[in-house]
Design brief:
Shape of chain A: elongated
Structural class of chain A: mainly beta
Radius of gyration of chain B: 25 Å
Helix content of chain A: under 10%
Order of helices and strands of chain A: HHEEEEEEEEEEEE
CATH architecture of chain A: Beta Barrel
Number of helices of chain B: 10
Oligomer: heterodimer
Number of strands of chain A: 12
CATH superfamily of chain A: OMPT-like
Radius of gyration of chain A: 20 Å
Strand content of chain A: over 45%
CATH class of chain A: Mainly Beta
Number of helices of chain A: 2
Strand order of the largest sheet of chain B: 3-4-5-6-9-10-14
Strand content of chain B: 15-25%
Largest interface: A-B, 46 and 45 residues
Number of domains of chain A: 1
Distance between the termini of chain B: 96 Å
Shape of chain B: globular
CATH topology of the largest domain in chain B: 2-enoyl-CoA Hydratase, Chain A, domain 1
CATH superfamily of the largest domain in chain B: 2-enoyl-CoA Hydratase, Chain A, domain 1
CATH class of the largest domain in chain B: Alpha Beta
Number of domains of chain B: 2
Helix content of chain B: 25-40%
CATH architecture of the largest domain in chain B: Alpha-Beta Complex
Distance between the termini of chain A: 42 Å
Structural class of chain B: alpha/beta
Chain lengths: 262, 342
C-alpha cells in the first residue's frame, strides 16, 4: 500500500510540472557533485515511550551528499548522522544518549527560473528514512538504563529554490511527509523482540517537515564552500506520542565534476 | 543594502537556532497529577492485569483520594506503593528518590527463615573450594570425587558468563555437576541464558512470551519463542542437578525453565517463586522511578509462569530442610542420587 501510494504521488507531482516552463529553466540548481559537511546539531525530543519530559542536547553532526542531473531531473541524496548527550529541560530527571541518522533522497524537476537564471525553483518528491536509538539513564541511583528506538520512513512532496546573491547562491529546500511507516516500540526495546513493528502513519497521525536554508559560493573551479542550517520536526500521535526537533548548522565543501562545472 | 538584509537574515536564523523550543508542557508535580501519571502509565504498560485478575479502574478509584490527601512525600510514596502492590507482582516496585530503597511487593513467605545456608554447603559439603579470585560471581568446588558444584547467587550485571568456562575448566573430570540456584533472585535475562547455554550442544525452544504492545490490557504481541542456544567455549553435557527453591525468581527461573528441556538435567528441590514479568523502569515527574512487568511468560505447554513457578522433577520440600545449620536435605538427596547413578 505504501509503495503504491508513493508511486502515485510521484507521478502526480512530476506530471504537474508544465513542460512549457521546463523549456525556459536551467537543468538543476546543483550540478553533479559530492558534498561533505561537518557541524553542530541540537536535538530536542519528548518521547512518551520513555517519559513525558523534553530532553535536549547538542553534538557533532556529519553530513554527506551527492547530486546528479539525469534526463532533466535533479537527483539529490543526503545522509546525516550524529551523537547527542541529552539533558532534561524544565526540571526533569535522568539523561539520554541519542545516536541518530537520516537519509534523504530528492527527485526534483525544474519548474521555473527567472530570465537571467538568477532564481530557480524545482518541485518533486522526497523519500526520507531516519533512525534514532536512545539509551535512557534513570536517576534512581541504581544505574538503570533502557533502550528505545524510533524509525521513520516517509515520502512526500519536495521543493527547492535558489537565488544568486553576493557572488554565490542562497538555496532552500523543504519537504513534508505525507505518508510514513513508523517503528516505535511500545515499551523499551527487548532482545526477544528486535524486529521493527511497522505501522503506517498518514498526515493525521504523523506531522512534520524538514528543510534547509544555506549559502554556497565557489572557492575554485571545482570546489564550492557551503554553509547550511537544517531543521526537521516530527509530531507523531500514537498511544506513545513523540515530539522531536533536530537542528544543525553545518559547514562543508562540494566537489563538482569537471565537465559539469558551471 | 542587499548585503545588510542578507546578514540580518542570517543573524535571525542563528538566533532562532539557539533558542530552546518547547515540545511539551512542564510536568505538574502535584500529588494528584503524579498519581494520575503513575496510574495511567501502569494502565498503558503493565502486561498481567488479566493474569492477576485486577480491576485497575477500581484500584485507581480507591487509592486516588488517599494519594491526594497524603500529608508528606513519605506518606504519598506509601500510597503509591500500596496501589502497585495490589498487582501482587514482585517485578513491580517504586523507588522514591535517588538512593532510596525500592518499595517492592513481598509475601508472607519472605518472612519465613531461609531454607538454604550457603555457608553450610561450603563448610560441610565442599571437599575443595576452587579459586574465587578468577570467578567472583560464582562459587565452585567439589562435592565428591566426580561431582562438581557451582553456585550462582545472582544474575545481576553483565559480561561475566565467561566465568562459567573457567569453572567448567576447573571441574575437568566431573561426570556430574550440581548447579545451585537456590535463593537466586534473578537479574539479567541475556546473561542467565548465556550461562545456561553451557549445558547444551543444540538450540532448544523452552517457552514463549507475549509483550505488551498497545493501550488495551490485552494488547500483547503474538507469542515470541524463547530459545536456549549453545554458548561459551566449554560445555558440560553430563548429568546436571539443578537446585531450586521458593526464592528463585525471574531470570533464575528462566534458567530452570530452559534447562528443564535438556535431557541431561534433573531439577531438584522446591518450586521456584513465579516472578516472570520482565520489568521496565518508568519515571515520575518528581524523579521517582517505578518498575512494571511488560510481558507474560509461558511454558511450552502454554502455562503461565507467573505465580506458578517452575516445579522440580524431584521434590525436596522446604520442611525437609528444616534442620538448617546441620544438614542440607536437597544436597543430601542429590548425593544419594549421584551415588545410585540417578
Amino acid at each position: 500500500m505504501f509503495v503504491k501510494y508513493a508511486a502515485r504521488l510521484a507521478l502526480v507531482v512530476l506530471a504537474a510540472v508544465p513542460a512549457a516552463v521546463l523549456a525556459q529553466s536551467e537543468p538543476c540548481a546543483r550540478p553533479t557533485s559530492i558534498q561533505a559537511s561537518l557541524g553542530l546539531g541540537q536535538s530536542d525530543r519528548a518521547d512518551a515511550a520513555i517519559n513525558n519530559t523534553q530532553y535536549q542536547g547538542r553534538g557533532p553532526q556529519l553530513s554527506l551528499g551527492a547530486a546528479a542531473n539525469m534526463r532533466g531531473l535533479c537527483l539529490e541524496a543526503f545522509a546525516t548522522g550524529g551523537a547527542h548527550y541529552l539533558r532534561p529541560l524544565g526540571g526533569g530527571f535522568g539523561s539520554e544518549r541519542v545516536l541518530d541518522g537520516r537519509a534523504d533522497l530528492y527527485l526534483l524537476k525544474p519548474v521555473a527560473s527567472s530570465a537571467d537564471n538568477r532564481a530557480t525553483f524545482a518541485a518533486g518528491l522526497a523519500a526520507q528514512a531516519s533512525l534514532a536509538g536512545t539509551k535512557h539513564s534513570f536517576a534512581n541511583g541504581q544505574s538503570t538504563t533502557s533502550r528505545y528506538r524510533l524509525g521513520v520512513g516517509s515520502i512526500g512532496p519536495a521543493f527547492d529554490a535558489s537565488y544568486r546573491i553576493l557572488g554565490g547562491r542562497v538555496f532552500a529546500t523543504a519537504t513534508v511527509p505525507m505518508v510514513s511507516v513508523v517503528d516505535h516500540p511500545y515499551v523499551a526495546a527487548s532482545s526477544l523482540d528486535p524486529m521493527p513493528g511497522l505501522r503506517v502513519a498518514t498526515w493525521s497521525s504523523l506531522r512534520g517537515g524538514s528543510g534547509q536554508l544555506g549559502y554556497e559560493r565557489a572557492l575554485s573551479r571545482y570546489l564550492t564552500g557551503t554553509i547550511a542550517y537544517q531543521a526537521s520536526g516530527l509530531r507523531y500521535d500514537d498511544a506513545r506520542p513523540v515530539r522531536a526537533l533536530s537542528q544543525m548548522l553545518t559547514f562543508g565543501f562540494r566537489l563538482t565534476r569537471p565537465t559539469e562545472h558551471r | 543594502m542587499m548585503r545588510r538584509r542578507f546578514l540580518l537574515g542570517a543573524a535571525a536564523l542563528v538566533a532562532a537556532a539557539c533558542a530552546d523550543p518547547t515540545l511539551v508542557a512542564p510536568a505538574d508535580r502535584s500529588y494528584g497529577a503524579m498519581f494520575d501519571q503513575l496510574w495511567h502509565e501502569t494502565d498503558l504498560t503493565y502486561s498481567m492485569f488479566a493474569v492477576k485478575h485486577v480491576n485497575w479502574d477500581s484500584v485507581g478509584a480507591v487509592f486516588r483520594p488517599r494519594a491526594v490527601a497524603a500529608p508528606s512525600d513519605f506518606a504519598f510514596a506509601r500510597v503509591l506503593a500500596d496501589m502497585l502492590f495490589t498487582l501482587h507482582d514482585r517485578h513491580v516496585s517504586l523507588t522514591p528518590g535517588r538512593g532510596a530503597m525500592p518499595m517492592a511487593y513481598t509475601t508472607a513467605s519472605d518472612l519465613q527463615p531461609l531454607d538454604f545456608d550457603s555457608t553450610l554447603v561450603e563448610r560441610t559439603y565442599l571437599t575443595r573450594r576452587l579459586d574465587a579470585a578468577t570467578m567472583p560471581h560464582i562459587h565452585v568446588g567439589w562435592l565428591a570425587p566426580s561431582v562438581g558444584y557451582i553456585r550462582i547467587p545472582t544474575f545481576v550485571g553483565s559480561g561475566w558468563a565467561g566465568e562459567m568456562d573457567a569453572a567448567l575448566d576447573s571441574l575437568e573430570g566431573a561426570s556430574r555437576l550440581v548447579l545451585d540456584l537456590r535463593c537466586n533472585p534473578g537479574g539479567n535475562y541475556e546473561l542467565a541464558l548465556d550461562v545456561a547455554g553451557r549445558f547444551t550442544e543444540q538450540s532448544r525452544d523452552f517457552g514463549f512470551v507475549r509483550i505488551r504492545n498497545g493501550p488495551k490490557h490485552d494488547d500483547l504481541t503474538d507469542p515470541i519463542t524463547e530459545t536456549l542456544r549453545p554458548t561459551g567455549r566449554r560445555k558440560f553435557t553430563g548429568t546436571v542437578y539443578l537446585l531450586t527453591n521458593r526464592r528463585v525468581f525471574s531470570s533464575a527461573e528462566n534458567v530452570a525453565l530452559a534447562m528443564r528441556q535438556l535431557p541431561n538435567v534433573v531439577i531438584v528441590g522446591d518450586t521456584t517463586g513465579g516472578a516472570s514479568g520482565r520489568p521496565v523502569t518508568r519515571e515520575l515527574a518528581n524523579g521517582w522511578t517505578y518498575e512494571l512487568s511488560t510481558w507474560i511468560e509461558y511454558t511450552p505447554d502454554n502455562h503461565v509462569v507467573e505465580d506458578a513457578g517452575i516445579a522440580p522433577s524431584i521434590v525436596v520440600p522446604r520442611s525437609s530442610n528444616a534442620t538448617i545449620g546441620k544438614r542440607d536435605a536437597v544436597l543430601d538427596r542429590v548425593l544419594q542420587l549421584a551415588a545410585n547413578g540417578g
